[in-house]
Amino acid sequence: MLKLAKEVSFFRFFGHSAYVNSRHHQAVKEPAPGLKISAQSSDGVIEGLEDQAGLVQLVQWHPENLWQNDPLEEKLFQQFFKRVEKVKQAHC
User: Which of 2, 19, 43, 67 could form a disulfide with 73 if both were Cys (CB 3.0 to 4.6 A apart)?
Assistant: First the structure.
């Protein structure tokens, strides 16, 4: 289960928390400059990062295995494609 703060973009479609399939042997220890923590598991593992504008989002879990059965995980992909299209139109 993830904990999300209201000021992060993931909150817009997940709310305060989300179920994820966190299975990894490595994790982010500290965000790189320009990135902030946007999701953490209950054990403190950083599961999501984003930039200040919310255009760049990184996840540590595996939404590609959940999207077919979870509309919120599917929305994660839909939002990604919308951001790509927006950037593409701005630069073409």
Answer: 67
Phi first, then psi: give them for residue 12, nearest 5 degrees. Answer: -55, -35
Strands 2-3 and 35-41: antiparallel
pLDDT (tens digit per residue) in 51-65: 988 778 888 888 788
**Coil, strand or helix: which one is 8?**
coil
pLDDT of the chain, 92 residues: tens digit per residue: 777 767 777 767 777 667 777 777 788 999 999 999 988 888 888 988 989 887 788 888 887 887 788 777 788 888 888 888 988 888 87
Rounding to the nearest 10 degrees, give the CA dihedral for residues 6, 7, 12, 13. -70
> 38, 49 in Cβ contact below 8 A?
yes
**Tokens coding 41:** 């598991």
